[in-house]
Amino acid sequence: DVSDINCLRSIKDSLDDPHDRFKSTWNFNNNTEGFICLFKGVECWHGDENKILSINLSSMGLRGQFPRDINNCSLSGLTGLDLSNNELSGPIPSNISHMLPYLTSLKLSSNKFSAEIPVNLANCTFLNVLYLDHNQLIGQIPPELGFLARMKIFTVSDNLLYGPVPYFQNAFSSDSFTNNPGLCGKPLDPCESGSKPMDSFKNGFVVGYVIFSVSVITIFISYCVPWTQGKKKSEVPWQIMLNLILQGKNKRKQSQQVKEMPSVELLHEESKETSILVKLVSRLSYTEISEATNNFNEENIIGIGQMGTIYKAVLPNGWLLAVKRLHDTYLFDEHFITELKTLGRLRHENLVPLLGFCIQSKERLLVYKYMSKGSLCDWLHPEEGGARIMEWPLRVKIAIGAARGLVWLHQRCNFHVIHLDISSKCILLDENFVPKLSNFGEAMLLKSYSIDSTESFSINSEFWESSFAKEDVYCFGILLLELITREDPRSMTTYSDTSNETLNNWVTHLSTSSNFYSIVDKSLMGQGFDQEIFQFLKVALDCVQPYPDQRPTMLQLYKKLAAIGKRHGLSTDSEVLTHHGETSTLRRDECNEDEIIEV
Ligand SMILES: Nc1ncnc2c1ncn2[C@@H]1O[C@H](COP(=O)(O)OP(=O)(O)OP(=O)(O)O)[C@@H](O)[C@H]1O
C-alpha cells in the first residue's frame, strides 16, 4: 500500500536517529510486495503485503517530535505504536485520533513529551493500552479518557499532572498515577475540598490561574524550544517547570550555587559558566525572540533603560513578553549575570518573573513576563501632556506590595537578596496594578548563615543588617516620598554632579518642612486620606534617616505600612509577619523549605 510506504518515509524523515538504530534498515529502493515488513520495528498484517499493523521504535535513542505525518498510516489501520524510551519531546498531537484512529496500543513512556494530554485521545476508541508515564506532561488528565471502555492498561505516573483522577470504568492502581505534583482522588488521596475545578468559583479560579501560568510557559516553550540546540532542547521544559511548579518538591542547593556562580570574564555562548546559568533559567532561542519582537523593531520598543532596551514580544499565539536587549555586552555582562542568578531563581507575587535568557555572540537578552501597566515611574511622572490619575488607595497598595517583596528578599532562608537599586523605575505593575520588583542587575546575594566562615559569601549578619539592607530601606523611603509628593527624585540628581547631596537636600527640605500641605501631591489632598498620608510621610522620613541603624528594618517598615493599609482592605501577610518573626534573620531550623514562591 503506497500510503503505508509514505507513512514510513515520513517517520524516517521526521525522527533523528543518532545511533542509526533503524534508519539504515529502512531502505525504500525496493518495490516487492511486503518489503517494508522487513524494516526494523515494522510489523505487517501479512508478511507479503505492505500493510502495517504496528510500529515499535522503542529504546533507540531517537530525538525529535512526535512524527506529524504519521496520518498516512491510518488508511491501513495501524493499531500499535511504541515510541517509548527515547528522547522525543514536544506535545502529543492534538489531532491524534485523526492520525491514528485504529490504535489499540500507544506507548510513549520515558520520553520528554510536554504540554497537556490531548482530549482528542479520547476519540481513539479502540485503545486498550496507553502508556504516557515518565514524561513532562502537564495539566489535568482529560476526564473524557474515562469513557475509553476498552482501556485495560493506563499509566501517567511521573509527569507534571495535577487535578482529579478521572473516573475509569476499569479501576487502575495508584501506581498508574504516582509522582505527579497534584493528582488526587481515587486511587490516590482524596482531593481536598476545592481541588476539583468546578467546586467553587474560587477554586476554579486557582486551578485556572495555575493552568494559565503553566500554559503561558508551555506555549512559550513549544514555540521557542524547537530552535534551540542539542541537549538544551530537552532541558528547557524541566528548568521552567521546576522553577514554576515544583519549587517546593525539588529545591536546588542554593547555597552551593552561590559558590558556583560564573564570573564575568568567562561568560560566552558555549562556556561552562553559561551552562551554569542554564541550570537557573531557561536558555531561549535568539531566532524566536527576534521573530517575536519583529526583528527588534523600533515599534516594539516599550522602554529604554540604562542597561538595555525593552521590547514587547508577541508570541504567535498572542502571549506577551518583555525582552530586555542589553546595550553593551562588555559593560553589562556583570549586571546580566547578577539579574539571572538572583531574579532568575526567585518566584514571588511581588517580583517580576524572569522567564529566560539568551546569549548569542554579542547579544544578551533577558525575557520577562509582560507587565501591562508599565512602571510606577511611568504612572507618577507621565510624559508631558499625559495625566495619570493615581488615587491614594492605589499608591498604598503599591507601596505595601513592593515592601512585601523586599521583606521576602531580605528575610529569605538559605540566602538573602539585597536589591540596592530600588526606585519607582524598578517597580512594574501588572494588569491589576500588583507591584513587581524588577532590575536586579545590582543586587547582592548573601548567604544567610555562615556555616563555614571561610566562605567568601559568608557575612556577619549584624553587619549585613546595618549596612546593605538599610540601603534598600533608604531607597524605599525615597520611593514613599515620591508616592506622597509625586516629585521625581531623579530630576534632582540629573543636572548635578553632587547628586547625593542634592537628593539629601531634598529629603532634608521635606523632613523639616513645617507645612505638610506644601509638599504633598495636591491631587491627594482633601480626599479623606490626609491623616493617613501624614502617617506615611512619617514612616518615609524614618527610612531616610542619615544613619542606617536609625532606620527601621524592611519588616518593621512593612508592618507599619500594612497596619495603615488595613483600612483599604489590604490584608496583612501572615507568612511574612508570623512565620518570619521580628528578627532580620532566622535560625536555620526556623527556615521553612516552602517559602512563598508564587507565579
Ligand atoms: N516586564 C516588563 N513589562 C512591561 N514593561 C516593561 C517591563 N520591563 C520594563 N518595562 C518598561 O520598560 C521601561 C524601561 O525598563 P528598564 O528596566 O530597562 O529601565 P529602567 O527601569 O529605566 O532601569 P535602568 O535604567 O536601571 O536599566 C520601564 O520603565 C517599563 O516602562
Automatic annotation (TrEMBL):
Record-annotated Protein kinase domain positions: 296-564
Superkingdom classification of source: Eukaryota
Organism: Rubroshorea leprosula
Transmembrane domains' residue ranges: 205-225
InterPro entries hit by this protein: Kinase-like_dom_sf, Leu-rich_rpt, LRR_dom_sf, LRR_N_plant-typ, Plant_LRR-RLKs, Prot_kinase_dom, Protein_kinase_ATP_BS, Ser-Thr/Tyr_kinase_cat_dom
Taxonomic classification: Eukaryota, Viridiplantae, Streptophyta, Embryophyta, Tracheophyta
Database matches in Pfam families: LRR_1, LRRNT_2, PK_Tyr_Ser-Thr
GO molecular function: ATP binding; protein kinase activity; receptor serine/threonine kinase binding
Entry protein name: Protein kinase domain-containing protein
Binding positions for ATP per the UniProt entry: K324
